[in-house]
Design brief:
Number of helices: 16
Strand content: 15-25%
Mean pLDDT: 89
Radius of gyration: 24 Å
Number of domains: 4
CATH topology of the largest domain: Dna Ligase, domain 1
Helix content: 25-40%
CATH architecture of the largest domain: 2-Layer Sandwich
Structural class: alpha+beta
Length: 404
DNA sequence: TCTGGGGTCCTAGGACCC
DNA sequence: TCTGGGGTCCTAGGACCC
């Protein structure tokens, strides 16, 4: 979907069309206040000189999406809001409306599956679609079906999208970027050298900042340069799996299937504080946030019908370094108090001398709640005995007072 | 002026078991 | 007397993606 979060807001505020709009920001405290004051949620970036006020509004937030007009000013996804304000003080800022975004996400996806049932979810604004067996899916190399999907989505939602059609997901993903917004791009196997090899290696889905930097140090910048390397040389530098995969990717090869269904592995809740907090000095505030995260997470699990057995915490220090601690229970749970207690034990195993900017709670090892039968699993087998391995970490803290 | 939130997957070491 | 070869599970960190 093209500039999805921003486009969803433009449906509500068509008067913003063509203007630089950025979606994101902190907003926690001021959102309600702002709605009351303005009757709508749009805020023009306050001049950067009135920094304290601006900071109150956009806080530590980042940009989720910027309209194409805003991108002209050099602002873009994942950029800090305060930096965006400097680059483009005339931009209009809106908080993300997750409910609205999810509504349109469901709508565009159901529109697609009515036409082409084999669809893989790739987040709120992106999917893979298998054209292979769709009637007419091969006409004009897929262009006819792509146009049909674009038209159906626009009619249902008023939103535009960009579609790449190719022999596999790897190439289709790259193709989808060629003609944005509202474009269609077809990439055939034969187009590898002309359309793919000139691109930067970072355009490969799976090569991120770190791998990109490492390749640059090895004087490899384009996908063509990557394709020219011996597989063994890449394996020597990036390891067996990654090296071999890189070589395949550079040659446009990808046999991964379109996965239409999957079960979640973990669920989590995390929050960055408005200001850094200290475990001792801000103990009460931190404790309340901690409990709130556990409560919300338990609600998420229960609402979606999952239980998990590995409880984890994550925290981020003021220097932005993160640490995690996990603790696996011998029973499955979606209970707020159990999560809170276990996460509390995990939290004690982490140094709490430095100030914190983020706290998170996670539950992993998920299974569907209905599989949680005291005697039998769905396949009729009696579950294995719980893992009774002595747990040093639990033993060492079980008798001390809870910190929070 | 530092840098959101929610995910998945991979790696590597250690414990433990047969 | 120098100490195999699987295999699974757990944990911590990190890369990457939307």
């Amino acid at each position: 979907m093209d500039a999805f979060f921003a486009s969803v807001e433009l449906l509500r505020y068509p008067q913003l069309k063509g203007l630089p709009v950025v979606i994101g920001g902190g907003w926690r405290k001021v959102d309600e206040e702002l709605r009351a004051a303005q009757g709508e949620r749009a805020l023009r970036f306050i001049p950067v000189e009135s920094f304290p006020l601006l900071k109150d509004y956009v806080g530590r937030g980042v940009i989720t999406t910027a309209t194409y007009a805003a991108r002209q000013f050099g602002v873009g996804s994942a950029m800090g809001m305060m930096k965006a304000a400097k680059l483009c003080p005339q931009a209009i800022v809106l908080p993300v409306d997750f409910e609205e975004v999810r509504k349109y996400s469901r709508l565009f996806k159901s529109t697609i599956t009515e036409i082409a049932p084999l669809m893989q979810d790739r987040g709120v604004d992106e999917v893979y679609i298998d054209f292979t067996e769709v009637p007419g899916g091969q006409r004009e190399g897929g262009r006819v079906l792509a146009r049909l999907i674009q038209k159906a989505i626009f009619e249902k939602t008023g939103l535009t999208c960009s579609i790449g059609v190719a022999p596999n997901k790897l190439l289709a993903k790259m193709a989808s970027e060629f003609n944005k917004p509202n474009g269609i791009s077809i990439v055939h196997e034969d187009d590898l050298q002309t359309m793919i090899w000139p691109l930067h290696v970072r355009k490969i889905n799976g090569i991120g900042p770190k791998a990109g930097e490492k390749l640059a140090r090895l004087h490899i910048h384009t996908i063509g340069e990557l394709a020219a390397q011996e597989p063994q040389w890449l394996i020597d530098h990036f390891g067996k799996a990654t090296g071999a995969w890189m070589h395949e990717a550079a040659w446009g090869r990808d046999d991964s299937p379109v996965v239409t269904e999957s079960e979640p592995v973990s669920m989590s809740r995390e929050t960055t504080f408005d200001r850094d907090l200290h475990a001792v000095r801000d103990k009460a505030e931190l404790g309340a946030i901690f409990t709130e995260l556990c409560t919300k997470l338990a609600e998420d699990l229960q609402r979606k019908g999952y239980v998990g057995k590995t409880i984890g915490i994550k925290l981020r220090y003021d220097n932005f370094k993160s640490v995690t601690r996990d603790q696996t229970l011998d029973t499955y749970t979606a209970d707020a108090q159990t999560i809170r207690h276990t996460a509390g034990l995990a939290l004690k195993r982490v140094p709490l001398d430095k100030r914190l900017r983020l706290l998170g709670v996670r539950v992993g090892g998920l299974i569907k709640a209905e599989e949680l039968n005291p005697t039998r699993n769905l396949d009729g087998k009696v579950p294995a005995a719980p893992n009774n391995r002595p747990h040093d970490a639990i033993d060492s803290v079980a008798h001390t007072d809870q910190l929070f």
